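Internal ticket #5521
Category: modeling
Description: The requester needs a full-assembly model to guide mutagenesis choices. All entity lines are attached below as received. Residue total reported by intake: 663.
Assigned to: D.W.
Attached entities:
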Amino acid sequence: MKISLSRIQFFMLLFPLFTGFVYISIQSIIIDSGKRAAWLIFIVASILVYLLFILYEKTYKYFILGKVSSVIYQIYWLFHLSLLVSYTIFVVSTWMSPNTPKYALLLMLLIPSLYASLSRAETAVNIGAIFGTFIIFFIIFILNAADDFEYRNLVPTSESGLKEWIWGLIYSFSAYRNMECYLILRKYVMKNEKIAGKPLFYFVFLLFFMYMFSIITVSLYFSLDEFRFISEPLLYILHTQEVTFIKRLDLIFVFFWVLITIITIINFILVVKLVHFKKKRKYTKMRIVLYHILIFIFAYYFANFADLQWIRVRYWITFPIFGVLLPIMIITWNKVRGRTIFDSSNSSS
Amino acid sequence: MKGIYAYSEALQDSTEITVIEAEGKSPREVRLNAEMKVEQSIDLSMLSAFILGEDLATDGLEKYLDVFYRDPYNSLTAFVVIAKGSVKDYIDASKSWSAEAGEYYSRLIRSAEILSYVPEYTLQTTGATLNSKGTDLVLPYITLDEKQQRPQLGGVALFSKGKYTGRVLKPDQSKVIGLLLQKKGRKIQFSFFYNNKPLSITVMDVKKKWKVTSSNSIKLDYDLQMDIQELSGDNLTDTKKIPEIEKFLEQKITEEIEKVITVLQEEKSDVLGVGNFVRVAKPEMFDENWHETFAELDIAVNVKGKILKVGIIK
């Protein structure tokens, strides 16, 4: 399977992958771990992640997935996507639709994804454009709560000690999980498109801005102790806002978020397809259908409070393993052997 | 625990207020039991006021409010009100009104907020304050006029560590809380006798500056911008009179603030959020025993007033 991406398409594919799934839930765990300095810790984590992006940009040509690493990533992505879907239906059933059966919610998410995955790759590439509208409305409505912001909630940062800094950093990195997707998609960007330098900086800064905005606003709005109870603080803020045209503003944004989650799933499955169908395989469509069925089955069993809570607390582990350690091992291994994606694609073709 | 729900029911040519009473171990059970007495389920998504009896409030609010935060279908913008005596009397009083009880009470509180008699608190901000270690809650307190059986604002109920202290600041003192917690767009009116003549002013804007002066003292500086609303039998053509009135007002308002702060310290009720300020400005002063520290704190108040307008006559 081969695709060719412009710079904008590349970033549009990546943006939901980095923000779509975790965006409404990551703030509580970062703030509860980092306490008053959470926002400062997140800035430090983002700078380190930016350096990692620069490193990956310089070395992406050495990121060649072999048989074993492909299998490892595909198993991880299956688990990751199942968790993503189960969390989404859990949120939808909590906030919006408590009486709808789990299987119906799962079908609501997976049928559009299946359709897009069976269609041409361009469907997945261009669908992320919807994000822009969402972001503008989202920022406006969150700022509606500004009257209730307590600026002293952000200080003093000295209240956070070493333990808060360590766990705050660990969970802040989680916001940037899926770093491996950058390496996988990077080689499909047209050669005449420049990514290094300003374009990469703007992309990372936009991610940073989105997360930072959410961390700052929820920190200003809620007391520190409340983060122990509130798992989706952004939805909670929207829930408390009174506007004239709708009683429950949060519902609109749950709908939006479901839409964005579907885009995230579609984009993720594109990444899976790029890895899985690197070599020509038989029964392409059957495999995609089977992948969706597996997600359905796993997600169905994950989608309860106790399991999701257990996984969420421990899910930080995926960033250092699959986003940093494994890619760096693969890059180092291929660099030592002198193999690049250009040699690899030449040899396979 | 007893709960009372009031809602309007459309009849053929009019609407009638229906009141349902129920008991239960928790607010949720009270609601379930109440639902058994009506032909429909109670929907709290349009809840506009939550009235709690003062006897329950002395036991702490958190356990009564949990159910409201947990259910996304509940409205979190409803007002929380503390009522003197039995809540049932307040609901029964609503039967003769054209407005629903919830609508009436929310309008009552909203207008008191605009005049700064009560600070702005909804179910959501009440929860945030209950979870804040450096500030205490202060909620509207309503009483029932015995002759007319009409609810009225009795002032504000002071809380300490999430529990109602049993002390109420009457409206003439509660507006001082409004002044000290000033929010933009709110006006605060004061009336005094100046040279035996009534003098009414409106505080249009407040700028505050707090400073920790030592390990046991804090200074609260307030700059007020005021309009004269009423000063009968005197004219202000002589501009020297303005500084004189300003000085008089500064002194009077300082006295009012000091009286209120004394009450707050007696009740260990840090409704001004001095704790939150100290936690940032001098963290070593703030600890788990903040309420004890607050009660012993030496709080100096300094008010500077500036009269900007005197109306359309001099």
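Resolution: model delivered.
Comment from assignee: Chain B touches chain A through 24 residues (CB under 8 Å).
Ticket closed.
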